[in-house]
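fyi for ur records
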Amino acid sequence: MSPIPQYWLVKTEPESFSIQDLAKAPKQTTCWDGVRNYQARNYLRDQMKKGQQVLFYHSNAAPPAVVGTATIVREGYPDPTAWDQDDHHFDPKASPANPIWQMVDLKLGEIFPRALSLDELRQIKGLEKMELLRKGSRLSVQPVAREEFERIVRLAHEKPPEAPASGASKGASQPPKKTAKKVPTKSPRS
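which gave:
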């Protein structure tokens, strides 16, 4: 039997709920509701524990990217959006007596100084086995190895790799042209 993961990644579409929305939420905390996949539900219900760290991932964004961290502050409990007929996560099979779906509460850890895009993550040595990078992986809640979590957090605080300068002539006596500072790419919907 494999050990229970200690680190996680949650996906959200920033137009629905972004890390900036989490930063503006009361006490920078929210319930993580609306998960409608049984494997993800089992993680929420059985394995996600108070105090564990979470990578916050903006999916369906330009570009999709890990944008920060959060901490689990309340363990799995029934998701009432499942039996709310006015909620777009309504499930007619669910009820207070048969809740089916679970959620946890998350508190903002940090918004990264720079987002790490999916393309950049694919280039990082040591992340090859990460669930997020597996072909066909679509889980909105997934385990993350400690080494993967730590590497991503560390890289989010480092300067991005410099692109080689182009068009510079060797031995030119003119002073270099001023260029705008590079700003980390963020989703336009963030």
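Helices lie at 19-24, 38-47, 118-122, 146-156. thats all i got for now
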